[in-house]
Amino acid sequence: MKNKARKVLIIEDEGDLCLLLNILLEGKGTEVEHVQSIAEAEEFLLHEKPSLIILDNRLPDGFGIDFLSFVKEEHPSTKVIMISGVDVAAEDVALENGADAFLKKPFTKAQLHEKVTRLLNTEDTIASPF
């Protein structure tokens, strides 16, 4: 019996990074969706329950760090990887607010693979061209 694809939600407003994350994560047991704002993410989460969220900190309508409590309240079992390129202190705050992992931009394919694999608890989630 084939495992059902795990849904990954990318909340990121930079189109290039969204595309790159999508390419790295699509298939291989994952189904990738993306939104570009907290408002879109809230709407998405009313109808879907992703296994993993990749959440940027700086979004057009707010900070990902502030959105973490909503995510964890609505979907406590959903894993969250917080990404940020600007905020030096963001990692500690993100982890305190419920993020399961943190990636500082720019990050490598290997770093992304390690976090996703660890959080989704399966080696075959993403094939290893990383």
Provide a descriptive summary of the structure in words.
The chain is of the alpha/beta class and 130 residues long. It has one domain (7-119): Rossmann fold (3-Layer(aba) Sandwich). It is 39% helix and 24% strand. It has five helices and seven strands. The strands form two sheets. It has a five-stranded parallel sheet with strand order 2-1-3-6-7, sandwiched between helices. A hairpin with a 2-residue loop joins β4 (58-59) and β5. Mean pLDDT is 88; it is low at 123-130.
Strand content: 15-25%
Number of domains: 1
Strand order of the largest sheet: 2-1-3-6-7
Contiguous helical run count = 5
Summarize it:
Helices cover 39% and strands 24% of the residues. By secondary structure, the protein is an alpha/beta fold. The chain has a single domain (7-119), classed as Response regulator (Rossmann fold, 3-Layer(aba) Sandwich), CATH 3.40.50.
Task: Provide tags for this entry.
alpha/beta; Rossmann fold; disordered C terminus; 130 residues; single chain; 7 strands; two-stranded antiparallel ribbon; globular; 5 helices; five-stranded parallel beta sheet
Helices, strands, pairings?
Blueprint: E1 6-11, H1 15-25, E2 30-35, H2 38-47, E3 52-56, E4 58-59, E5 62-63, H3 64-74, E6 79-84, H4 90-96, E7 101-104, H5 109-120
Parallel strand pairs: 1-2, 1-3, 3-6, 6-7
Antiparallel strand pairs: 4-5
